[in-house]
C-alpha cells in the first residue's frame, strides 16, 4: 500500500508540531578502532524490547559522526540530567573535541560514557533501517549502569530548547 503524499505536511510545520512532544536527551558515544572518541547528542532514543534488551536511536542521514560509530559495530548511551545542558550543547556541535571536557569512564567494550549521567547503556548494533531522512538503529544492550536512584532531574528537549521537570507542589 502506498501512502498518499498529497497531504504531507510542510517540513518546518511538522518539526514545530512534533517539538511539542518532550523527549529526554542522551549522548551516543563510541571508541573507534584507532582510539578516537566519538559522540553526538540525540533526543530520539527509546527502549525497544525488554527481552532481549534492545534500544532504538534515530540518526539523521547527514550525521558525520554516526558512520564512524557504525564502523565500530557498537555504541554507548549516556542519559543526561538537567545539569548536563552544556554537555548536550557541546556534543551537538561539529568540529570540537567533545569528550575532553566531561568526566567519563569506559565500558567493558571500551565505549565512553559520562560518569555522572543518570544512567548508561553499552550496546552492539543489532539492526538498522533506513526510514526517510533518518536511520533507525537497534542496539542490543550488553552492559548497563546499576539501577541506582539519581538526585538529578532528566534533561528534556521541548519546543527547540532544553527544559527541566518542575516538581509538583507539596499539596498536589
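Sequence proposed for the structure above (172 residues):
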Amino acid at each position: 500500500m502506498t501512502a498518499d503524499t498529497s497531504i504531507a505536511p510542510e517540513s518546518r510545520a511538522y518539526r514545530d508540531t512534533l517539538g511539542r512532544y518532550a523527549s529526554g536527551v542522551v549522548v551516543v558515544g563510541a571508541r573507534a578502532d584507532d582510539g578516537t572518541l566519538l559522540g553526538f547528542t540525540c533526543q530520539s532514543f527509546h527502549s525497544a524490547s525488554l527481552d532481549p534488551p534492545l534500544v532504538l536511536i534515530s540518526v539523521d542521514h547527514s550525521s558525520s559522526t554516526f558512520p564512524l560509530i557504525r564502523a565500530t559495530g557498537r555504541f554507548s548511551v549516556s542519559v543526561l540530567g538537567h545539569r548536563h545542558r552544556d554537555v548536550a550543547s557541546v556534543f551537538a556541535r561539529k568540529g570540537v573535541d567533545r569528550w575532553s571536557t566531561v568526566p567519563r569512564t569506559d565500558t567493558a567494550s571500551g565505549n565512553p560514557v559520562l560518569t555522572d549521567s543518570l544512567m548508561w547503556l553499552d550496546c552492539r548494533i543489532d539492526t538498522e533501517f533506513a526510514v526517510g531522512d533518518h536511520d533507525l538503529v537497534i542496539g542490543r544492550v550488553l552492559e548497563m549502569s546499576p539501577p541506582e536512584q539519581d538526585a538529578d532531574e532528566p534533561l528534556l528537549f521541548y519546543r527547540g530548547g532544553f527544559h527541566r521537570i518542575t516538581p509538583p507542589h507539596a499539596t498536589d
